[in-house]
Amino acid sequence: MPKVAIVTDSTAYIPEDLVSSYNISVVPLVVIWGEETLRDNIDISPNEFYERLSQAKIMPSTSQATIADFADVFHKLHSQGYEILTIVISAALSGTMDSAIQAKEMVPEATIEIIDSKFTSVPLAYMAIASARAAKRGASLAECKKLAEKIRANTQVYFAVDTLEFLHRGGRIGGASRFLGTALNLKPILYLHDGKVEALERVRTSKRAHQRLIELLEADINGRKPINMMGVVSAAAEESASKLLKKILKHFDPKEVLLANISPVLGTHAGPGTVGVAYVAGIDPDLIDG
Fold first, then answer.
1. pLDDT score of 171
2. CATH number for the domain including 22?
3. How far apart (Å, rounded) are the C-alpha atoms in residues 244 and 33?
4. Which of 44, 110, 129, 183 has CA atoms 20 to 30 A from the CA of 6?
C-alpha cells in the first residue's frame, strides 16, 4: 500500500515537534506589511507580529498560500513515493484551497486529495495531526481522508475578540457584522459555521467571555465521550489562555490538549487579545490515538 503524507497550511500553527514527528508539510500563508511580504510563521513569528502590531502605523494585510509553494511540496512528496492528503483553512476565509487545487493540476502524476477543513487554527491542526498519525500507522489515503472528515463533523471553535475592528477591516467579519457599532465594552463571542465567521452573543467583560466559552463547550459536548481533544489559542494573550486552559481541565477530561498561538495571518484578522477554544468529541480513540 502506498504511503501517505499530510499537507496543511500555516494557520493550523502545529507545534514543531508534531510537524517533525508525523512528517507534516506546512505551506505558509502571507502577511503583507507595507512593502514587505512575510511568510506566516517563517519570516515572522507570532510574538514578533504582535509586538510590531502594537506599534504599527501601517496595518498589515494577508494573502493566501501560493500555488508555487503547494506545487513544490506536491512535487517533492510525489518524488518520495507518497500519496498526498491536503487539509487547508476554510475556503470561505481564504483562497488557499484554490491555490492547492491549481497546484494539484500542475502535478498530474501525483495522487492528491484536497479537503476544505471548514475551520482554521486548532480544529485544522487536529485534522492534520490525527490524519498524519493514521498515515504513520499505515492507513490508506482514503482512510486518512475519512478520518479528517469525521473530525470536521465533530469539532467546533469559539472565540472571544476584544474588538471587531480587525475582522471588519480584513473583510472576514461575516455574520458578526451585526455586532458592529455596539458598545465598546461588550466582548463579542464568535464561532465558525460552514466555514464562515458568525456571531453568537456579546458579554460585558473578558472574564465573563472566557467563562462563557467553557459553558459553550459543555453545551456542545453534552456528555459525548471520549473528548478526543481540547485546545486553547490566543493572540498576544498567553496568560489569559493559560488560565482558561486550567479552568477547562477542571471541567473536562480530554485525551489530548493543544495550547497554541494564533498565527500572524489569523492575528491580522482576529486582533490582539483574542482567545479561542476548540474541541473534538465522540470519535473512537482507536481511529486517532497513535
1. 46
2. 3.40.50.10170
3. 32
4. 44
